[in-house]
Design a protein that fits this description.
Length: about 325
């Protein structure tokens, strides 16, 4: 499982956090894989901690504030609901990438070793359908039309799935080892971080074709987009930095130093939050100055950052 541990981060823009906080501020949720913990960050500090099962990886949320987390080694999904203890759903496969329907009825789970995506009931875990994809499906993103985009890491492609019929409707070639995905706010573009080729593939979601490839730093791993869609933020594991790309010109306009081995990233209003795997903390970036303004300690091995914002798709 060492290869999974080294690529186990997703940067997700998701629905509201639990606890009734407004979407204009925190909370920000941080998943620590080695520490098996979900931390809630509010007002620049850790305001709560939820113990999880071993090695949680990916996270998603629905409009009701329920959080979902995958455990590849445990073949399971943990469900965290406001006011209730976490519950566990068994998954018939190596659960890795994850997306949730906005109403929380369905979960879409990438089976890392099975080259497929499962649609399961979020209430019972019952399998409702499957779709074949490429090798080692990583990040999953669901759009407002019900199309699911899947980064097929070892197939150098993104699979596009109709979630109503659970059929693959398109395959889009990318760079080497696509891992993290992010949709533009208007969903006209999908940004794909390619780990081994050091670049970003930009996919036109209307034509389902790649329209550009952009250098994105040393080992780009996580990707997020600012709320106005003007900037794309990409973590660079081997540079301890975040590369900032102008979305209109598709040019690098800034580089922000963060902690060692940055992985997941999420944007919340005027700030971005970056999970630093090697230093067990989260960097806070001011989007006006493009500078790191704080580091927040969390449990060992932070991989995923889940932030409030647009509803989960």
């Amino acid at each position: 499982m060492r290869h999974l541990r080294l690529i186990a981060t997703l940067a997700l823009a998701a629905a509201t956090g639990t606890g009734g906080a407004s979407a204009s501020a925190d909370p920000v949720w941080v998943v620590s894989q080695q520490g098996a913990e979900l931390a809630r960050i509010e007002a620049g500090t850790v305001a709560g901690r939820i113990p999880l099962g071993p090695a949680p990886v990916a996270a998603a949320a629905d409009r009701a504030g329920r959080l979902y987390l995958t455990h590849p080694d445990g073949r399971a999904v943990t469900v965290v609901e406001p006011g209730k203890p976490p519950r566990r759903l068994p998954v018939p496969g190596q659960a890795f990438g994850l997306a949730a329907s906005p109403d929380g009825a369905h979960l879409f789970v990438g089976d890392w070793s099975g080259d497929r995506v499962l649609r399961i009931s979020a209430a019972t875990g019952a399998v409702e359908g499957t779709a074949a994809v490429g090798h080692e499906p990583a990040h999953l993103v669901l759009d407002r039309r019900g199309r699911l985009y899947v980064a097929d890491r070892e197939s150098r492609q993104v699979s596009v799935i109709d979630t109503g019929t659970m059929t693959r409707v398109a395959v889009v070639p990318t760079g080497e080892a696509p891992f993290a995905l992010a949709l533009a706010p208007d969903e006209a573009s999908l940004y794909v971080a390619n780990v081994r080729s050091g670049d970003l593939t930009v996919i036109d979601t209307a034509t389902l074709r790649a329209r550009a490839t952009v250098p994105a730093g040393r080992m780009p791993y996580g990707v997020a987009v600012t709320g106005d869609g003007s900037r794309i933020l990409v973590t660079n594991q081997h540079a301890a930095a975040v590369t900032v790309i102008d979305a209109a010109r598709l040019e690098i306009v800034a580089t922000v130093a963060v902690g060692p081995y940055p992985e997941g990233i999420a944007v919340v209003g005027p700030r971005a939050y970056v999970a630093n795997w090697f230093s067990d903390d989260v960097s806070v970036i001011d989007l006006a100055t493009w500078r790191e303004t704080a580091r927040i300690k969390v449990a060992e091995g932070p991989r995923t950052v889940l932030a409030p914002g647009e509803p989960a798709r």
